[in-house]
Known about the structure:
Number of strands: 18
Oligomer: single chain
Amino acid sequence: MLKRFFGGIFVLLALLMLIPANLYAQQSTNYVLDESVIGSSGSNNSSSSSYNSSSSTGDLSVGNTASDNYQIDTGSKTTHDPTLSFKMINNGSSLGDLSATAPSMTTTSFSVLNYTSYGYVVQIFGPPPTSGAATIASSPLGSSSVPGTDQFGINLVANTLPYSIGSNPDNGQFGFGQAASNYSTTNQYHYISGDTIALAPKSSGETIYTISYLVNVAALKPGGKYSTSQTIVITGTY
């Protein structure tokens, strides 16, 4: 008797921001500088009762320079309020017909950008695919594709096996996002609800992440429609 499986993944995005107070001013009794400016411009004056600095027009440089303990964003005046933004690029994917003889794969994508929050972490929450009481088991750490076994796993890098699918985090300009260690190995798939799957260690321009999903099913798996709904949580770090 031929059994038919169908798989689907739906990803929801939630945001949690932690906003500290007064993280922007560098000052003493005689000097105040709201933001460091490199170049011939900045649209503001930096002043106190004993100091005044005005800026001319035209940026010499724009971008981010960083070390382990300090970073500076160059260019015109920007707000000192922390900002953490995200965008879902694709929030629903179909795995088509699942088979006990061949893996099924799909992808979904999202982007994250943060400013003056000194980095962020991305977590994923949700069960593996289920159909009624039947569940496709999560892949243990360091798993490659094994058709004919229960296996649900993800990673956030470019893969060549079992298919060429996915991509490494795309940092564009001034991005510092990266896949978390358990999800950054090509052709290996893993999943635990609540895991950190990506992060930025400091303020970062936009990073586009692609999640690659892998599903294998056992030959005696009950037929049905298997699906899961997941939530991605992004938290700013300070």
